[in-house]
Amino acid sequence: MTDPARTLPRLFAERGRWFEEALFASMERAGERPVTAAQAAVFANLDDGGTSISELARRIGVARQTAHQAVHGLIGMGLLEQAPDPASARSSLIRMTPDGDRVHRRALATLGVIEDVLVERLGADAVAALREALAGPWGAPPVVAAPDGGASG
């Protein structure tokens, strides 16, 4: 049986947290206001023209209420704004303010520097292979026959 700590999903999650911790600490050290992981996910999933809260929730994989809380925290910080959706009178779009755009560009540049550290630690070939494997086509998630977990005593 595979050690639960070594499954690919767990390793992906741990490495995602590694990037988050590095990014959040670096941004705070640079004087930017701290954000939560949910708030960072909102930024990572915004379209240039704006995105509805429902769509953000779907992309992030959280409840609409959770996305709503993250968005409104960022609105309160002056990083996002709510604007009418030209395609729907009943909907609004969430988009970056100029300050939000500045912080987002700074975060992306910081991630680039963090990736450079990873290249120093793992090597350029390993990081390139990792990026290629993650960005390549995986196809639809499979539905497989789940093996019997065995009898418990």
Automatic annotation (TrEMBL):
Keywords: DNA-binding. Residues 28-127 form the HTH marR-type domain. GO terms for molecular function: DNA binding. It comes from the Bacteria. InterPro entries: HTH_MarR-typ, MarR/SlyA-like, WH-like_DNA-bd_sf, WH_DNA-bd_sf. PANTHER family: MARR-FAMILY TRANSCRIPTIONAL REGULATOR (PTHR33164:SF57), TRANSCRIPTIONAL REGULATOR, MARR FAMILY (PTHR33164). This is DNA-binding MarR family transcriptional regulator. It comes from Actinomadura algeriensis.
